[in-house]
Amino acid sequence: MNKINLPQASKLTSPNPVSLICTQKPDGNTNLATVSWWTYLSFNPNMIAYAMSKASYSGERVRETKKVILSVPSEEIADEVMKCGMSTGRTTDKVKEYSIDLQEVPNSNIKIPVHSTVAIECSLKEFIETGDHYLYICNVENVYANADKRPVFAWNGYSEIRPVD
Fold it and tell me: In this predicted structure, what is the pLDDT of residue 37?
């Protein structure tokens, strides 16, 4: 075994699930942010967690509204998902800028991409400081799926987004 750093380890442990954090902006529009670390925490009660940079606009939005939908995007929007991870919703309307079609979710003001494999609708339970990120712990309210869509994953230390072959 050779000593390596954590970013190098992330390349060796690829692929990782990639998702879009969907939040509501103050004007009612949907903001999208790419995350590549989330996990199931509990099935009784249903809970998930995801990590985001402390400076994230989407993190700010979920801390304010206490609502979020984690959407697992499908291969049709892999390029757009990568772009969503390279810009901030604070200054960019990512939905409009990257031409991402949205669909409504029952009983939610937050929309999700049409090209979603799974959507996990949540309320924020708490968030915890974890170095340069916050860990968002969420109660799952509803889960939706489209099994006809192929989900995408982050590869090579998050430098590529594509489905599993």
Answer: 86
Residue 159 belongs to some domain of the structure:
no
Domain count along the chain: 1
Q: Is residue 111 within 8 Å of residue 24, measured between CB atoms? A: no
Note whether residue 4 is domain-resident: no
- Here the CATH number for the domain that contains residue 50 is 2.30.110.10
- Residue 104: per-residue pLDDT: 96
Mean per-residue pLDDT pooled into runs of 10, the chain (165 residues) = 84 84 96 93 96 95 98 95 88 93 96 96 98 97 94 85 87
pTM attached to this predicted model: 0.92
Are 14 and 156 contacting, i.e. CB atoms less than 8 angstroms apart? Answer: yes
Closest CA to 110 of 97, 121, 118, 99: 121
User: Which segments within the chain are labelled E, that is strand?
Assistant: 16-17, 19-24, 30-35, 38-43, 46-53, 67-73, 102-103, 112-113, 116-130, 133-145, 153-155, 160-162
Q: Which domain holds residue 144?
A: 15-152
3-class state of residue 110 by DSSP: coil
Q: Is residue 108 part of a domain?
A: yes
In a domain, 5, yes or no: no
